Amino acid sequence: MVQALIKFALRNRFIVLLLAGGLFAWGIYAVTQNPVDAIPDLSENQVIVFTEWMGRSPQLIEDQITYPLVSNLQGIPNIKSVRGTSMFGMSFVYVIFEDNVDIYWARTRVLERLNYAQRLLPQGITPALGPDGTGVGHVFWYHLDAPKMDLGEQRALQDWYIKFALQTVPGVSEVASFGGFEKQYQIILDPVKLQFYNIPLMTVMNKVRANNNDVGGRKFEMSDMGYVIRGLGYIKSKEDVENIALGENNGVPVRIKDIGSVQMGGDLRLGIVDENGTGEIVGGIVVMRYGQSADKVIKAVKAKMKEVEKGLPEGVTFKTSYDRSDLIEAAISTVTGKLKEEMIVVSIVVLIFLFHWRSAVSIIVQIPITLSISFILLNAFGLSSNLMSLTGIAIAIGVIVDNGIIMSENAYRRLSEWQNSDHPENI
């Protein structure tokens, strides 16, 4: 078989060269399409199910949320394990799939099973899937430089403008906000006045909830004109909250402002984000989608940030907190530099060792063709260009030329024996 293959290659040089050129061109294209990252993604193929039930103890979360979800998610095909974690007010379920399972097929199967399992959960509790990213998907962090804006305004700008714009970038799974205050209307009630007007606390909550809504009605005709009835009731200012009617006292309506005060404040915070001790900041974390190229995603995010920055208020700019592209470029340049050095050294050694340029060239040509085929295989197996994969290629360069050197040396030996033999037909 090997002899027949060698004979075919020697007698059909044009076909061999054509195949080699085609593989080399395919490899060059594979290099442009291969995901680039600094570190390999060794995280498990998992889907995270997150459920929130604030104010409940971990034991209650375990009994009424985590256990029903874990027991019902175990029947999904191609699952390795299901792990559950319960904490105060929150439940996390990690569904680990086999490595060869497509992540989006897995998310679809989990979502289908959640539709059935939700009926076992307490009323009003809805589990949600985590982002389609991994543990190494935090590729870019940024924060706002806005000295003229308070933390609440910065967080509102981040949540309602910047975040939505950056989430449209291809390859971005999620933009998580951090820092600042999440603005909210806060009603401070006076218990003495509640008792005086005989208004229960639940009545206040229900009235506020009912008055923050738009309602629609049917169309009616009057004087040959059609009118659509609507009720506009969304809260737009602090005064709207203060004027919500709760009941009446001797024919006089009792409003929120009669039993307490309304202020604009921030939601409870579990921590703060500080920049080198200079003060609090507001920003976001860009999470890359599973299997994407970190280098391309970061470049696309930076380009989008330049567009978004044009619409920011005067004096507000972006500052980078963490940029993995610096690490990626440093890692790739280091490895590619070593690859070039090794190729040059190996080429020189082959030339000196064989002392025949045609044989040396035939061996050296194997290096770029083999490297290009390596990237074809990297794409086929879904692996990225990173420190581990490129270093493996660099280590294998010496092995790549071994077979060519052995074949060339053996050919020289056989030709020498044939030339020096008295009976060449026996060689």
Task: Give the SSE map.
Layout: H1 2-11, H2 13-33, E1 46-52, H3 58-73, E2 79-87, E3 90-97, H4 103-117, E4 128-129, E5 138-145, H5 151-166, E6 172-178, E7 183-189, H6 191-197, H7 201-210, E8 215-222, E9 225-231, H8 238-242, E10 245-249, E11 252-255, H9 256-259, E12 260-266, E13 283-288, H10 294-309, E14 317-323, H11 324-354, H12 357-364, H13 366-380, H14 387-400, H15 402-420
Helix pairs in contact: 2-13, 3-4, 11-12, 11-14
**Low confidence ranges:** none
- Strand residue percentage: 15-25%
The coarse silhouette is elongated
Strand tally is: 14
Query: Largest sheet at a glance?
Result: 4 strands, antiparallel
Seen as an oligomer or otherwise, the chain set is single chain
With strands numbered from the N-terminus, the spatial order across the biggest sheet is 2-3-1-4
The value of Rg in angstroms is 34 Å
Pattern of helices and strands: HHEHEEHEEHEEHHEEHEEHEEHEHHHHH
What is the average per-residue confidence, as pLDDT, rounded to a whole number? 86
Q: Give the fraction of residues assigned to helices.
A: 40-55%
Write a structural description:
The strands form 5 sheets. The chain has a 4-stranded antiparallel beta sheet. Strands 6-13-5-14 form a 4-stranded antiparallel beta sheet. It has 427 residues and is of the alpha+beta class. The protein contains 15 helices and 14 strands.
Question: Any key phrases for this structure?
Answer:
single chain, 427 residues, 4-stranded antiparallel beta sheet
In brief, what are we looking at here?
This protein has 427 residues and is an alpha+beta fold.
